[in-house]
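>> received
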Amino acid sequence: MDPGMPPDLLALSTCLDATHGASEVAQQLRILSAQRGSAGRFHSEVAECLMRMKEIDGIAKVEQCRLSESGLTERSRIVEEARSQRYKHLVDVMQVSVKEDAETARQEISARAEVSKETVKGNVQIQESQARVEKSSSNFWQWVALTLLGSSILTGRRRGSFRRGAGRLLGWLPWLLLALLGWRQTRATRFHLSQLMMLTRVVRPQRIRSPPLRRFLGLGSFFGGGAVTDTTESPEFTPASPLASASSEQSAPSMPRRPSRQDVDAATASERDSPIKGSASSVPGSEEASLSGTIYLPVAQEGEAAAALRRFLKPAGLDVYTDRLLAEGYDFEALTMLEGTEREEMLRIVQCLPGHKVKFRKLLWRSQS
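>> returned
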């Protein structure tokens, strides 16, 4: 007998076997019990598969949680590293800024001390020249007076009339006094102009805006002194010391003349009216520009480039470098494309102050980020 057969079927099969022997009913019952045993085994396999599926699902959920946690950890680590790098960069920038600000302050102090020293030296030279002028003028007029007196006396004695010589001397005396007064006034004017010229050489002002002062300085040409150059229309800015700027202005070579707007318009009109199209227009100053290797932009285009560059530099207070950057070929687009060594080369070429280098680096870094 099958041990998995239910007890009621087992009792019924034994009863039928006892009464009727191995009948067909007993065989059917055994077949039915065998089918029920196979169905039980199927249900147990299904339950085992379900348990396995639940186990795999739990393992997958645990792995998913672990991967998400590791992803969050990696993301937070990357964010912290980027933040630490940013803080490190800011610290480096602050250190460089403090160092260059201190260097700028030292340069300003040394420039002021040098200017004061040169001013004192110029005042000493002025006093010495004044003393020499007064001494020479007094000696000169003493000799002139003695010469006139002696000549008058000798003339009167030779003609036998001392009174006539004295009268002639008294007649010439007002004119001599007037000439002496005029000569002294002229010498004083020349001395004051030379003193003013010397002071302007020692401490050269960047801009002289007063027209009367410019006209007064122009009087130096009438009394032997050179006329003072008008620096009010000079667009260049030299952030270096005044002495260095004066020496650079004196040693600067002559640049080729830039064609004006009227020259460009006239050249354009002549090119439009000429029968041969595509011929080069003769702009005044173009030959000098081609010989010197300098390429000038059109006036309107140059004005737009200068305005764009000035708008870009003005928020940082660096618009004073606009003309120098344009002269060196750095416009707005060229500045925004500079990187690393090119940026440092630009700062060296335009002779940027140490305190302004940090502002330039910050401005260019923000424009490229």
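>> DSSP finds twelve helices and no strands in the chain.
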